[in-house]
What we know:
With about 375 residues, this protein is mainly α.
Amino acid sequence: MVAVVPSKSNRGFSMAGTVPGARGPEEMTLAERFITAFRLPYALGCVVVGLLLFGLFDTWLSMYAGSLDPWQALRAALTPTTVLTDALVAYAFYLPRYMRTKLSEAGLSLSTLLPGGEAGYRRMFATVAARKPQLVTWFLFLAGLLLAVNLAAIIGTGPASIVFGGGPSSALEFVAGVYDLISLAVSTLGLSSVVWTYWTISRGIHRFGGEPLALRPYYEDAFLGLKPVGSLALSLASAYFGFLALFVLVLVASPSSPSAGDLIGVGGFLAGLILLGLVLFFLPLRRLHRQMIQRRHLEGSRLRERFAPVFQERAEDDVPKDIGHLFRLDMMDRKVSSMALWPFDIRILGKLSVIVLSVTAILISRIVAIILKI
């Protein structure tokens, strides 16, 4: 039997007595497991792994293998573009932990709306920790990114991004090439985990909207108790598009103009991630949107039935005409009219729109500048 108990912390819930092998939103993703294997505080581990060990050191080793000049290699490793790229990888490793924390925080209130309580909420988001799909996603990202960054070499318009040997020290360059490939695999583990975590939590929100929810009365909460879902969706989308904004900033900060192959490969890769982010924000919330519309229509119909006798030209003698009754009806009308149709404040949606439009505009302007050679 599964026993579910709230944690002492008000930040989320934990599970006690769970069935061996059972998974839930409290289980770590592969990226998190990789970082925690270094036995460091998580944020520090992201910096050490993403920024230093498989970032700056990887660049330094590649440049040193090609020039045998440690100071020239150090200068190359500390360029703004390189540092931004490595910071992006460190941020990518941090985001899955951030997203799962937000999911755990929302679980305390949202689980009360489900028939199965916290156990049902935990099952609904269990795929966040599924290992085999994460491995497949990681492999697809690695293959896709290798194709994107080497598209110029494939179509014959530029060099390959990873070279094994051929320089002043072939053995050292071979080692640097192998380490570079390992670093790329580590980087794509972080990148794929961001998309995987966002995808699975969004799917969980979609399943949540299809459940027979015990919504709160409209006179207690205009959002019917669903605002934590909207806050969760907005937090995830903001973090995801912030990640893409940093990705685009890396491209903008690049001192060299990318080739047509790079433009098609990396630009198409980013455009696909932007489109995916928009779909994963709005599509999972549509079921909740329909439930909120239906509840508003239902309450509006009930209220109109109560208003009908009051507005009849020849009201019956037994129709209440006291001021208190009319005041209550007026208050109910105001409450029904103020019922939300989406599980988030529409005004807050403007912040997400600004981020999305900014990322898209920067990407398009960069592409146009390259095409026009400005």
